[in-house]
Amino acid sequence: MEFVKDQSAGYLANHMARIFAHGLTARIKPLGLTTGTFPALLELWDTDGLTQKQLVERLDIEQATMANTLARMERDGLVIRKKDPNDRRVQRVWLTDRARNLRGPAMAAAQEENAARLAALTAEEKRQFVALMQKVIQTRMPEKQGNV
Amino acid sequence: MEFVKDQSAGYLANHMARIFAHGLTARIKPLGLTTGTFPALLELWDTDGLTQKQLVERLDIEQATMANTLARMERDGLVIRKKDPNDRRVQRVWLTDRARNLRGPAMAAAQEENAARLAALTAEEKRQFVALMQKVIQTRMPEKQGNV
DNA sequence: AGCACTTGCATAGCTCGCTATTCAAGTATT
DNA sequence: AATACTTGAATAGCGAGCTATGCAAGTGCT
Fold this sequence. Notes:
The structure is a homodimer.
Chain A: H1 9-28, H2 38-46, H3 52-59, H4 63-75, E1 79-84, E2 87-95, H5 97-101, H6 103-117, H7 123-140
Antiparallel strand pairs in A: 1-2
Chain B binds a DNA duplex through α1, α3, α4 and β2.
Domain HTH marR-type (chains A, B): 9-138
Keywords (chains A, B): DNA-binding, Transcription, Transcription regulation
Organism (chains A, B): Altericroceibacterium endophyticum
């Protein structure tokens, strides 16, 4: 065969991402979280009250995807959205107490999943692996170089 | 608790997979293909007439996902599904002429996308990268009880 | 002031992945 | 032969991602 799927970087990336997502889904389900909320939560745990626009910029996610994700998060009591009084187009996103309290357990779950998936790699391989993924990502996003 | 998303393997895997998917989507759109059909097509180009069950086993995709993907492929004139006369539960999947003719261009598109995304890596890094992803995928830790 | 342009977000509608459930066809047990 | 179990696929319903489009609030030009 001219194309071996298990040697194709794109195929492997997709497969691997599904495996990570599957594992993380299971680990954070007891917390009442889903994987799609994770990136937004990470940003908000660091800086509460970001605008939707700011979240989109920080996460390389489309605006429409973020709008939908935030709607689910609001529905599930993780955030509330308030119009910025200075510019009423802007929605600022604020964590609820519940979301703030999930920071520790959620980060622990993510780290456990990472550790489990990389368990077969040596410390040096883990370092290389992360560096290579960063490099591949930055190939499309040269504007972010040095910022990672 | 320190968690830097751009050093998290799972986060990077997700991000990278979205980048690959985005690129491949654009490259195969002119062919009338979408990314989800690609794995099934690769198997069928190699062995036409597989059953749905066999496709599921070969691709690490859930049965329901494959059923939906094949339904879209049939709708789009890529395959036809025929009941196996020896076991009428079984659906065998057969490529159409159109799908057979797409093999060359589709594989070329995938290889071009892979090459573009890995352009910043040396030959040795590419080899390592693929090997590391294979290793991560093949790691299947037994479910831990209580302590991960 | 009035008009066009820009910006931030929401909505519609799609793919693709998942879990859970249902259904029909085969197999096995009695 | 009738019943129960097993197996292959389909369906329902959701999350998460995308593109395209709509709309209201702000900005700028005249």
